[in-house]
Amino acid sequence: MKIYIKLNKQESGQWNSIKSAVVGDGTLSDGEFAKVMLFRGINAFMDDLNQAMDEMSDAEKDEVLKEAGVAPEIEVEVPVAEEEDDENSTDSDK
Q1: What pTM did the predictor assign?
Q2: Which terminus of the chain has a smaller tally of CB atoms within 10 A, N or C?
């Protein structure tokens, strides 16, 4: 996927200032630096979203998920059969 961002002269100057302040010697291309900034922004956004969801009541979460068209997660307990050691063991197991 390619994303194009058109910057005016002032924005380009600000971009270069931020990039040189963060990277310093210019070891990253503009594209690589943009990827780093994009993913840091996405991660920060997701952290904020998760924190907001954690602070919601269950009813609020259900409403948000319903509006988003996402089915809520359902917790299901799967029974695990207990091993019958005494009946199935042999003399060599003891």
Answers
A1: 0.54
A2: N
